[in-house]
Amino acid sequence: MTYFPHLFMPSTVTPPYEMELDALLAVFQQHYGESLRHFDKIVSIFKNAGVGKRYLCETPETLVNLQDFPERNQRYQAAMKKYVVEAAQQALENAGRVAKDIDYIVLSSCTGHMIPGADIHLIQELGFRPDVKRLPVNQIGCAGGLYGVAHARDFCLPRPDTHALVIAAEFGSYAFVPTDLSMSAMVGIALFGDGAAATVIGPPTDRPSLKLTSQKNLIVPNSERFLAFDLEHDGFRVIIDRAIAKAMGEVVGPHIEQFLQDSQQPARDLRFWGIHPGGQKIIGGVRDAFSLSDDDLAQSWNTLKSVGNLSSASILFVIKALLEEKELDEGTPGLLAAFGPGFNIELMLAEWG
Predict the structure, then answer these.
(1) Which conformational region is residue 33 in: left (phi greater than 0), alpha (psi within -120 to 50 degrees), or beta?
(2) What does the alpha-carbon distance between residue 283 and residue 156 come to, in Å, rounded to a whole number?
């Protein structure tokens, strides 16, 4: 029988400041006043983003006054050290493992910069083996969580006795530039929150899991600027092109369909869908391409509504919700998908463990 690694129940961690949509808009209006010339348009962007609330590492009142990029990045580094450890510790407990069981660590984050990475802090803090292999992932963006899972699967696939730990931690509030009031920036603020998640990949046990059966990575031609960060003197400037909506309808659906055909997996037989909650147009694009209902994608919609887009960590939040909320027979097939800068599409077929 062919061996496939399993993904165990992810951990999810959010910072302390819970922010409802209307409260966030009120802070923006009070702080920027007449600088927000098109406040009615900004309100529309926020309300159409599908995010009811999010969690932040700081109060919005603090964030709008953090003008200094190095200070924001230092706070990002502190958040990484704190929440990466918390997420990893809980993920190990979920899988019934300890740090010394782990042979490979993948850590994804794109919302700040630190050298050495938070994985070095994690290894020393929780007592991982000093020879543990590592893969820091920085430039994959929202696809980074599933990209990490794919690479962990690749590592474990020929080594059935090994375990990998995948962590995704994003603190988009520290990437916010208070002086950037562009529409792209407003879309980013409307969507993103802060949080971290982690999961263990390894051989099956009696604990809840998904068997990771096949995967594919795709780069959409001529789409480099659909999603991007431009690094300027005062921080990261987010680029979100309107062409993403068109790509979801015209490009992503056919790519997923081709992956399913190549895997000899009819879409009609899939019983769970874990789609990156990057925004309403992203989830809705997959829904429409495969004639799904909103209930079919409930875990993605609910994640977007309750915590926002957490970039690379989002897909692990969705997978946790799937494992907690659905009751399916062992071997039931499903699809995991995430999308990020490139324009990069990460796809994975899984079976209920």
Answers:
(1) left
(2) 30
Catalytic residue among 57, 110, 142, 156: 142
What number of CA atoms fall less than 13 Å from residue 215's CA on the CB side?
Answer: 21
Q: How many CA atoms lie within 13 A of 107 on its CB side?
A: 25
The tens digit of pLDDT for each residue in 186-199 reads 888 889 999 999 99
Give the pair of three-digit tokens for residue 135.
Answer: 């893969």
Cα separation, 137 vs 150, in Å, equals 12
- Nearest one of 95, 103, 138, 116 to 312, comparing CA atoms: 138
Q: What is the DSSP letter of 251?
A: I
Q: Which domains does the chain have, with CATH numbers?
A: 6-202 (3.40.47.10), 209-352 (3.40.47.10)
Q: Is 269 helix (H, G, I), strand (E, B) or coil?
A: helix
Is-above-0.90 flag for pTM? yes
Going through 220-308 in order, the beta strands assigned E by DSSP cover 227-232, 235-240, 272-275
Catalytic residue list contains 142: yes
**Lookup: tokens for 17:** 């400041």
Distance between CA atoms of residues 252 and 338, nearest Å? 10
Helix-, strand-, coil-residue percentages of the chain, each rounded to 5:
45, 25, 30
H helix or E strand, kind and range, residue 333 = strand 333-340
The C-alpha atoms of residue 286 and residue 253 are separated, in whole angstroms, by 6
pLDDT band at 203 (very low <50, low <70, confident <90, very high): very high
Q: What is the pLDDT of residue 242?
A: 74
Q: Which amino acid is at 348?
A: M
Do 229 and 110 form a contact (C-beta atoms < 8 A)? Answer: yes
